[in-house]
Amino acid sequence: MACAILVSAALTLAVDIPSGEIEVRMLDDTVVRGRVLVKTPTHLYLQARAGARVRLLVEDIVSAKRIKSPVTPDSGPGPTTTTPATPDEPAAYRRTLAEMNPTTADAWAGFGRWCFANGFPAQGRRALEKSAVLDSPNARRRRMELADLLVTAGRRYDAQAVLAALVRACPEDAALRKTFNQLSDVLDKEIDDLAGRVKSLYRAQAYGKVLDALEPKVRGAPAMLLETLSVKVEREAGLPLDEMMATCRLKTPCPRCKGKSATCPTCHGIGWRVGGVTDYERPLLLTRLEREAARACQAVPSHVMMRLTDPRYQRPPYNRSVFVLARAQRNQYVKAFETARLRYRALLGFQAKADAAARAALQARLGELDAAIAALKKAKVR
Questions:
Q1: At what angle do helices 282-298 and 327-350 cross, to 10 degrees?
Q2: Residue 377 falls inside a structural domain
Q3: Domain assignment present for 132
Q4: Do the beta carbons of residue 102 and residue 53 sit within 8 Å?
């Protein structure tokens, strides 16, 4: 037994997985490229370049190597360009950005401080990072200022990521390492407490409270936080973080209708707590919904639906005997199709931005289920 555990551990740790943009080769020779989000002892989570989030089994990974990051419109500081404002950003932000001189590090630093003071921490971080690139001799000082501003703004995990990069660049700086370790210790204790609380709530089947605790931490969290939280939750509760969130989502009723209204404006008749779904759990949640919908449909024998809906069975010789179902059996089939309809309706809601063909396929499937449920309700029973 001990030998088997050692062999399993050796296989799991055989591949050194770097951070950042990587290329992973699997046992079946498939190649996946993307940015590392989370590394756990059993799973690797990547943000693929196409935008989807991918979960891979570590034991199936043959090799992993770092690759060059893809070029994005905001990947470089651009000494003579500014980051364009979006229409959602207030006029004060757009005006300040337009008035700034984009050629000097001090101008970018001043703009970054203004962003932090006025509630734009993400834009402020980008601006101060640009100032550090433009003023490379003072890059360390400028990034330390950025870390301080992030802590003041309550974005301590972002500050931890900035300090971690500084520690890697200046490993001999004892004071910098001490600052990083102090912040990391505080954040690690918070995550330990959160993982322990989530474990207790999950075992007590308080699924809504699990989501209340996890959603604020997971939504928009930096990769370092997601990695640490995933490892500790999986170690405490025995299942991956995204699987826990998806399970809790499907077991938590809508806070408004409690799953009892088909016309509820909050859940749109789905019956679950669909608000607040994070990008982290969404891919697995969609997979779970598809799998559960297919399983519910398979619970109804195909020959039953053929007898009820196929026009051929309304003509001789098939219509000479009346097709009758046991009432309990008919009700069981109706319930299975209603379960599948809820899952497909949820999929349609979660894929509001999907392509037209995918949405049309889901709507067609919902129409088929409506027709099948109507046919079952009209069937003769005994």
A1: 160
A2: yes
A3: no
A4: no
- What's the pLDDT score for residue 343? 84
Assigned domain for 216 exists = no
Tens-digit pLDDT profile for residues 46-61: 877 555 677 788 877 8
Q: Give the pair of three-digit tokens for residue 131.
A: 């100032």
Structure tokens belonging to residue 23: 């290329």
**Domains in the chain: how many in total?**
2
- Which of 66, 94, 122 corresponds to the end of one domain? 66
Domain span at residue 39? Answer: 2-66
> Could you tell me if residue 232 is inside a domain?
no
Tell me: the pLDDT tens digits for 282-341? 888 888 888 888 898 898 888 888 888 888 877 777 767 777 888 888 889 888 888 888
User: Which of 66, 81, 108 is the last residue in one of the domains?
Assistant: 66
CA dihedral for 333, 334, 337, 338, sign (positive or negative): negative
How confident is residue 203, by pLDDT bands cut at 50, 70 and 90?
Answer: very high
